[in-house]
Every structure is written in structure tokens, then in C-alpha cells.
Amino acid sequence: MNKCSLSGSSVFSLKGRGGGMQQPKLLDQVRNLIRSKHYSIRTEETYVNWVRKFILFHGKKHPKDMGEKEISAFLTHLAVNRNVAASTQNQAFNALLFLYRNVLGIEFGELKDVQRAKKSRKLPVVFTKDEIRQIITQLEGYKWIMAQCMYGAGLRVMECVRLRVKDIDFGYGQVLVRDGKGAKDRVTMLPEVLKEPLKLHLEKVKSVHDRDLKAGFGSVYLPFALERKYKNADRSWAWQYVFPATKRAIDPRTKVERRHHIAESVIQRGIKQAIRNAGIPKTGNCHALRHSFATHLLEAGYDIRTVQELLGHKDVSTTMIYTHVLNRGGKGVKSPGDMLWR
């Protein structure tokens, strides 16, 4: 078991044991270890937030002085009192597992006494081709391009905003999705309708990048240790984001002023507004464009394994959910109400 570097009374204390050199706060230890393992900043923020909530739930008691009983109580509280989704409860569990196993060096068991949040099996919202056409017609500029990427290539919203220039292959007509969900890379198609608008868009992005370079900026975040391995790669055109933010900002990790990718909330709001403007009575969002991509491919007769690969699903059973819209299997029976009048 690793020795915790904090004094026992307060988990937020900076004082080290024996009056020696000050040690990092527990939450800073979590952050530092997450960064050393090259987890995304979203994972870092999520894990730190859950660890903080766990500590506050137990009256700021130090995690090293707690165990399976307190962890079970917290996770049960989330399910029973907070009524969180099963995925949210699992997220909190993973954060605490990381804290105890990787930071404190403490293993805990299966937590059999935890009240599990109920897993809801919701069918995905799918738009018809005509509805997709109406939605995309409401958009323009980079939002139109992003919507076409999510529907035409099956990208998740975060995969879309994180696209780099080098990931677009106009020659082969494909998009390389790097480090997608589950830290997997995959290749999907680049819709023909996107090629010319995307080229024009990248010309505008290139002019912004050139101005940043002249102003002494122009660097972009690089994953893992690539910034040290490839000198000046962070300033190269190939590594720039396809959909950059309108303003530069300070990187919270390196404190370097950079132009990051556009916030996913921008396109999320844009898609929801487009759905409202189109007068479509469905509660869809960006992910519904990806759902529609999969469903329309299956409707066109493409093999489900091919669709699975394009979506980046680990298991084909995940892809099977899209067959609910199709007239296939047991769900494809004719209504007796229709057969009555034949």
C-alpha cells in the first residue's frame, strides 16, 4: 500500500508529514497521475469531480480512512437519492477505482451491497431522409459541414470537433477517426457532397492559422508526447483542427495560449435549433444524426458488420439496435389491422 502524502485531518491540506516538504493535494495527485497516463482532459475533469463529491459526501474524511462501506454508501446514494443513470453511477465507480487503485494503492472488492442504478434501454431517435434534408437545410457555414460529417460519415460530436487537417483524405475520399471511443482508430467515408465545401472551409482555416503564426502563436495541442518528439509539429498545418475555436485560449494544462477546437456545445445548440426551425416533432440531437447514418445504411442493404466497422462499435449487438426501424426479424410482422382489409 502506498503512503498517502497528506495529513489526516483534512484531505485538502498541503502540509506533508513530519513538517517536511509540502506535498501535492490529493486532487492534484489524481490530476498528475491522469496526465501521466495520457487520459483526456474531459476524463480528468470528470474523475476529479467525482472524487471531490465522494470526499464531501463523507464530511471531508480522507479516502485512505474509508473503504468499501463508504464507497458502497456513496454509489447507492447516487442511485437511490440522486436517481442517476446506470452510466453515471459507473462513471463515479471508475473514478473511485482509479483513486484507490492508482493513487492510494488500495484494492477493494466487488461492492456487492451497492444498489445499482437501473439500466434503461431506450431506442435511438432516428430521422427520415427527408427530415435530415430539412435539418441540414437550416444550417450554413461550418455548422452545415459538421452536420454533414456526423450524418454523412457517422461521426460522434466529439470525433467531429477533434478532427485534424491530416485526418481528411480527399484523394481516397475517407476520414480517419483517431482515438475515438474506446481509444480506437477507424476509417469512414468522406461524403462527395462535402469535398468542395470542406476544401473552401479549410482555406479559411489556413488563413487564420497563418495569422496566428505571424502573431507568434499558431501552436495546437498534441496528444501524448508528440510535442516533445516532433519539434514544431504543434505549429504545422497538418495538425491544426478542422473546426477551430474563434478565439485563442490558455491551455489549462500547459498554460500556453493556443487555438483549440470549437466547443461541442456550439454545434449541439445549432443542431437543436435547426430541428426546431424545421418543425420536426422529435427530441433529437447531434447523436441522432449518427443514428440516422447507421439506420439509412442498413435500409440501403449494407451488411451490418460493415456498418459496425464504420461506427466503431466493439460489439455487433450495439449496432443491432438500429434494426428496430427496419422491417426485419420478429419486428417486421404485418399488423393484423392491415391484414383484415386485404
| Number of helical elements | 14
Q: Sheet with the most strands? A: 3 strands, antiparallel
Helix content: 40-55%
The main sheet orders its strands as: 1-2-3
The overall strand count is: 5
| Averaged pLDDT | 86
CATH topology of the largest domain: hpI Integrase, Chain A
**Structural class from helices and strands?**
mainly alpha
Overview of the structural elements:
This protein has two domains: 17-103, Tyrosine recombinase, N-terminal domain (DNA polymerase, domain 1, Orthogonal Bundle); 129-325, Orthogonal Bundle (hpI Integrase, Chain A). The protein has a three-stranded antiparallel beta sheet with strand order 1-2-3. A two-stranded antiparallel ribbon has the order 4-5. With 342 residues, the chain is mostly helical. It is globular. Helix 1 (26-36) runs antiparallel to helix 2, helix 6 packs across helix 11 and helix 11 (286-299) runs antiparallel to helix 12. The model is unreliable at 1-10 and 13-19 (pLDDT under 50). The relative contact order is 0.09. The longest helix is centred in the middle third of the chain and has 23 residues, at 192-214. The chain is built from 14 helices and five strands. InterPro entries: CB (IPR044068), DNA_brk_join_enz (IPR011010), Integrase-like_cat_sf (IPR013762), Integrase_catalytic (IPR002104), Integrase_integron-type (IPR011946), Integrase_recombinase_N (IPR010998), Integrase_SAM-like_N (IPR004107), Tyrosine_recombinase_XerCD (IPR050090). This is Integron integrase.
